[in-house]
Structures are given as structure tokens and as C-alpha cells.
């Protein structure tokens, strides 16, 4: 009996250590929809995995079905990513304008002094609506910081779209923050779904390799979620 209690206590301490370690490694990840803000790990976040926020607030005039943002913070060779998927509608409502923001601090790749660039991939659909996408790396490590590295705005898009832009090269200063921003304008009965992906690849890393690593990360998040639900 004593042996079992010791094992249980050790397991509890080890699990607590893992949680603390994850917390120490991860920068602050937040998702803001209009005036509603959700921080990774708070009650509003329905995804238990670290570095993932799933958030669906009640916003007057809109139906926000789901918004998920994830990252591989603090980054790793050879890429850093912050990704945001969305599903929004104004079915049976008046619609209007709405801003989505996803932001996280304390990214460490590319390392200080190394050369990097910011690649933006924005794709999705919009019906009776328009969407404008933009991303920033803020070298002052400011949450929701809008500067100084950006590929520039993409859109407004009003139909099925897919667009990729890349910033000029920059010399990294660590830690830094990344912010994704979506600007929506929905008429009555408008809808939009899509994905906004910010990647900071190492110079010379081919896009297929980056996408393979992103796919592996998504598979891992899916496994964690299924394990939690079971």
C-alpha cells in the first residue's frame, strides 16, 4: 500500500512538473474577438492542449462558431508558426465589422542575430462578406504588437481565396512576439471560414518540409484532444 502511495505521489509531482515546465516555456497566447479576450488555459479556452486556444464568444450581430489559434512557441529549427482558423456568420443578424486578433510572446526562433522572414498564407471563403488578413513580428516582444516586420495586408477578399506573401529579410532579436489579425465586414446573412498562417522559416528551408512539420504538430494536437475526451 505504501509503495502504491509513493508511486502515486511521484506521478502527481512529475505531472505537476510537466505542467510547470510547459508554462515556463510558453509565451502568453491570447485570442481577441471584438472586445472579448481569451487567454490560453483560461475557462473560455475549450482546448486543453498548451499553445492552443479555441474560443467562441457570443458577439451581438454575429455567430462565431469557432476560432482556434495554435503555435509551436517558442519555435524550433527550422520554423516558427502562429496559425488562426475561423468560422463566422451573420445568419439572421445584421452583421457589421469585426476584428479577430491572435498574439503570442516569447518566440525564440530564428535565434538572435540570425536572418529570417515572415511568410503569410491566408486562404478561405467569404459570402456576402469581405476579409482582410495581416501579420506582424514585433521585435520588442509586445503582445498584440503591430510592427515592425510584416508582409503587408492581404485582401480584402470577397470570394474563395488563397494568397501567400513574404516579408523582406530581417535580423532577429529574441524574444519576439507574433500577431495575426483578421478584419471582417459581413452583410446580413454573410459567412466566412478560413485559415491565416504565419511562418518564420529558416533561410533555405523548403515550404514542403515546413508543411510536413506543421501537419505533424496538428496531428499531435488532435491526439491530445481525443485522449482528453476519452
Structural write-up:
This protein is of the alpha+beta class and 230 residues long. It has one domain: Jelly Rolls, CATH 2.60.120. The chain is built from two helices and twelve strands. The protein has helices spanning 2-25, 207-229; strands at residues 29-33, 36-39, 52-55, 63-71, 79-89, 96-107, 115-116, 119-138, 154-157, 161-166, 170-171, 176-201. Strands 1, 2, 3, 4, 5, 6, 8, 9, 10 and 12 form a ten-stranded antiparallel beta sheet that branches. A two-stranded antiparallel ribbon has the order 7-11. The model is unreliable at 1-25 and 217-230 (pLDDT under 50).
**Cα-based radius of gyration, to the nearest Å:** 19 Å
Intertermini distance: 28 Å
Which segments are poorly predicted (pLDDT under 50) over 5 or more consecutive residues? 1-25, 217-230
Count of runs of 4 or more consecutive helical residues: 2
CATH topology: Jelly Rolls
Which structural class fits the helix and strand makeup? alpha+beta
Strand content: over 45%
Average pLDDT, rounded to a whole number, is: 83
Order of helices and strands: HEEEEEEEEEEEEH
- How would the global form be characterised? globular
CATH architecture: Sandwich
The number of strands is 12
CATH top level is Mainly Beta
Largest sheet: 10 strands, antiparallel
Overall helicity: 10-25%
Number of folding domains? 1
